[in-house]
Every structure is written in C-alpha cells, then in structure tokens.
Amino acid sequence: MLAYLAKRFAGAVVVLLVMSFIVFGLQSIIPADPARAIAGPNAPSETVEAMRKELGLDDPAVVQYGRFLLRLAHGDLGTSVRTRQPVSDDIRQYLPATLELVLASIALGVALAGVMAALQYLIPGSRGIRLAIVGVGSTPIFLSALLLTYFVWFRLGWLPGAGRLSYPDFAGPTGLNVIDGILVGRPEVSGDALLHLILPALALALPIGIAVGRSLNGALHDVMSQAYVRTARGKGLSETKVLFRHGLRNAATAPLSMLGLQIRLLLGNLLVVERVFGWPGLGLYAVQAFASADLPAVLGVALVFGILYIVVNTLIEIGQSIADSRISL
Q1: Which CATH architecture group holds 87-323?
Q2: Who wins on pLDDT, 243 or 93?
Q3: For the whole model, what pTM was predicted?
C-alpha cells in the first residue's frame, strides 16, 4: 500500500506540473493583458507599462514560469486580477462550498445508480424505465439545471433556487454548512443548507446516476449468472440476500471505474451548475475569472481540481482492490 501511494504521489506531482505548464502557456494564446486589467481600461499606456514591469510580464516566458514554480513551491498562487487578493486566500474561501456540493452530488449519484440498477434488475425489459434513462441521460447539464430551477423553484416554490444559505452571518468551523449547523447546535441552519443543496446536487448527480447505474446493471447481469450465485440460490438464500451478499460486491469494479470517469466530468459541470444556481464555490469563481482574464485564479482552480481528481481516483482504485481481490494495487 505504501509503495502504491508513493507512486501515486509521484505521478500526481508530474501531472500537476504538466497541468501548470499548459495553463501557464495560455497566457501567450489568450488575447488578454493582466496589466491592463489591473490598471483599468482607461489607464494611460505609461501606467500599464509600469504595471507590466512590476508584475514581471516583460521577462521571458521561461523566467516567468520558473518564478511561478518557485512561488508555487511555497504555496503562493499569485494575486487574483479580479479580487486583488491572493489566489490561495480566495481558494480557501470558496473551496468548502465546492467540497460540500461535490460530496453531496457523489453520494446522491451513487444512491440514484443503486436504485436505477435495482429497478432494471427487478423489472427487466421495462420500456418506461429505459425511456426515462435515455431521456435524462441525453439532457445537457445546463438544460437539466435550468429545468430544475424553473419547475422546482420558480413554478412550484418547493426548494430554494439560488445561494447557499439563508443565514448570511453564519460561519461554522469546517465551512460545510450542513455539518457545521449540527456541530454548533443549530439544526435550523443544517436544514436550510440542505434545502439549498438539493437542486444543484441533483443536477450534478443525474449524469452520475445514469452512467453508473447502467454500468452496475450490466455488471449485475453478468455476475448473477455465475455458478457461485446459482449455488447460493440452491442453498435457499432469498434473491435479496444473494443480490447484496454476492452480487453487488463482485459487480462493483466496472461501476467504480465509471464513477471515476463521471467525477472528472463533474468537475467540469461544476462551472455550469454553480453559475446557474449562484452557488458560491470554485466553479463560480472560475467562471468569473475566465470573464476577467484572471489567469492566476484560473490556474489555481485548475490545480485544485486536478488534486481533487487524483485523490478521488486513488480512493476508487483502492475500493476496486477491496471489492475484487484479483485486482492488485
């Protein structure tokens, strides 16, 4: 296990270096001038040139990239052009909201996948279930987010459609409002945070539930036809016990792989969903950074998302090895 984790850590460092090089290289492609953005659109050219010299933008690209890596080694991601604050401070401010949304989306997506696979297994050949899966699975993420907002919030008023919390002055120890409300003894805060969380989490969870559910259903059909499953049935075990004791664990490898792929897509979908629902997380922060040509902020968010993806996929590989002893780390 330690050797595996060491290899994954070394691979993560290489991936993040390559990612930083690619995102840093966008500075020479995107027709945006950070010095002009900081100085203001009406600033004289002398002021812009002075700002460019102060930022070191006149130096060769190799020198700028080396300086960036040196700052990165000390945890310095630079200063945001839009907020005029250190990017690391901005990330610490917005990261808890994104973590809470991502965790809720993954949990809800896995639950939806289990329900969907069970329905397809127990009711094989149902056209209604198949049509629902195809319809939901083919809907773009921005459209499903807008439809949820329009019907559930605007038309029916069942759930909040924007923001994260109705208590603007609340600040918890972890930044995860659902947990913090419980920790500080304010269940009304946890309930309100959960209501705000449902719609954006559902929008992100639907693609996960569809993809993982179909993968789990296919794997279950293969596993449930194996000889050891027929033996378990011959011993008098009910179909439910056979499914949970022998089916799900042995069918978990392919769905876990699909879950890893869906989490990569989820990190991209965050930009759309957080923008639609006004969720104050890293996705909304990145969208605003794109609009302002705020390359330090874009690079910081890209590195955080890369780390999250590497960590989640490492956990998924460990889960696969636990579910199937034939898979070695």
Answers
A1: Orthogonal Bundle (1.10)
A2: 93
A3: 0.83
